[in-house]
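step 3/5: co-fold with magnesium ion
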Amino acid sequence: MGRLGRHDRLRDRHTDRAAGDAGAGVTLRIDVPDADAMHGFGVRLGRALRAGDLVVLTGPLGAGKTTLTRGIGEGLGVRGPVSSPTFVLARTHPSLVDGPPLVHVDAYRLGSPAELDDLDLDLERSAVVVEWGAGMVDGMAESVLEVRIDRRDDDTRHVELEGTGPRWVDDQQVLAPR
Ligand SMILES: Nc1ncnc2c1ncn2[C@@H]1O[C@H](COP(=O)(O)OP(=O)(O)O)[C@@H](O)[C@H]1O
Ligand SMILES: [Mg+2]
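step 4/5: write tokens
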């Protein structure tokens, strides 16, 4: 457990359910000191994911999106290796544990949400992780988990998760640090 447990020095977490905004979800902010910790955080997140979940990763090149996705794949128990899907738009990793597959999308070269839609991803039966997906998934699913990764000067990362839609509002424990 050591590797998974030590990384996320929780800075601050708040639940934001503004009145009248049914889509408001939970926000979680953590500091991630190194690549191992990013992987570990992904493992925990992956264990919590289920079929129908849509996760969007934002952050500059080298932020750790693929590192996080590799962890998510391990947490889900899918067949690897999860690598940068740069030359394929989407790669499906089947489950080794009778769970949902991981569909790993690189939206970097997609010009529009319509092109993402054209991939005909099986959203309902998969856990879908989209790198560079900000602005690309609008309307694709009722609930979205956004993960924004910022790189700091000291090479640590600051990660902010924001879940919107009923999935993340109703199941806030998914995002709670353990
Ligand atoms: N705190 C950290 N979190 C994530 N990755 C880190 C961290 N510190 C250094 N790294 C390194 O940064 C690189 C991130 O690469 P990658 O996950 O492919 O990023 P992206 O997919 O966002 O382009 C890896 O080489 C990883 O080892
Ligand atoms: Mg990447």
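step 5/5: annotate
The chain has five helices and eight strands.
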